[in-house]
């Protein structure tokens, strides 16, 4: 009897561990809609984000803003699943000694991704929202020099 109970307990433990690992690995799949090339053209210039899947738990992106022939802003992004949390790591050229700043996810589903780091100077919050007709809205927000500030960028998939 003791052997049967021990065997059942081991099987249950194994099955529940397998389920947890599967759920953890699936978290990044909620961000699959980011994959591709996105663009926002305005009189100020062109904002582009190019997302690609590196492996089952990591995406990468290059985000840049070009005005004429000048690149005014460049950042590299890693979106990685660490345990059950998606983490957005942004490295902006010329900022933070060119070291990445991490923003853990607070919301991650098939329509919206929200990443927050209240200790960062600006932004403290980064939001991606999936829109209709192959669009997404990227928004950065937070406290900038004592004022609540928000910037939205509506991009279309190329």
Summarize the structure.
With 158 residues, this protein is an alpha+beta fold. It contains one helix and ten strands, in the order αββββββββββ. The longest helix is centred in the N-terminal third of the chain and has 25 residues, at 2-26.
Structural account:
It contains 1 helix and 10 strands, in the order αββββββββββ. It has 158 residues and is α+β, with helices and mostly antiparallel strands. The chain has a 10-stranded antiparallel beta barrel with strand order 1-2-3-4-5-6-7-8-9-10. A hairpin with an 8-residue loop joins strand 7 (112-116) and strand 8. The longest helix has 25 residues, at 2-26. The chain is globular, with a radius of gyration of 20 Å. Residues 15-23 have low confidence and may be disordered.
Compute the average pLDDT: 88
Q: Largest sheet, described in full?
A: 10 strands, antiparallel, barrel
Measured as a percent range, the helix fraction is 10-25%
- Percentage of residues in DSSP E strands: over 45%
Low-confidence stretches: 15-23
CA radius of gyration is 20 Å
From the N-terminal CA to the C-terminal CA, the straight-line distance is 64 Å
Rough outline: globular
The count of strands amounts to 10
User: Total helix count?
Assistant: 1
The chain-level structural class is alpha+beta
- SSE order, as H and E? HEEEEEEEEEE
Strand order of the largest sheet: 1-2-3-4-5-6-7-8-9-10
């Amino acid at each position: 009897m003791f052997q049967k109970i021990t065997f059942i307990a081991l099987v249950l433990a194994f099955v529940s561990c397998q389920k947890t690992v599967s759920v953890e690995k699936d978290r990044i799949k909620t961000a699959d809609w980011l994959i591709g090339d996105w663009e926002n053209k305005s009189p100020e210039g062109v904002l582009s984000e190019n997302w690609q899947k590196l492996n089952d738990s990591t995406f990468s992106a290059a985000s840049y803003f070009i005005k004429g022939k000048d690149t005014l802003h460049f950042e590299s992004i890693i979106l990685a699943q660490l345990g059950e949390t998606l983490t957005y790591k942004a490295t902006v050229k010329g900022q933070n000694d060119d070291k990445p700043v991490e923003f853990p996810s607070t919301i991650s589903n098939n329509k919206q991704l929200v990443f927050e780091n209240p200790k960062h100077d600006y932004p403290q919050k980064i939001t991606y929202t999936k829109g209709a007709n192959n669009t997404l809205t990227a928004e950065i927000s937070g406290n900038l020099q004592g004022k609540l500030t928000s910037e939205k960028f509506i991009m279309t998939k190329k």
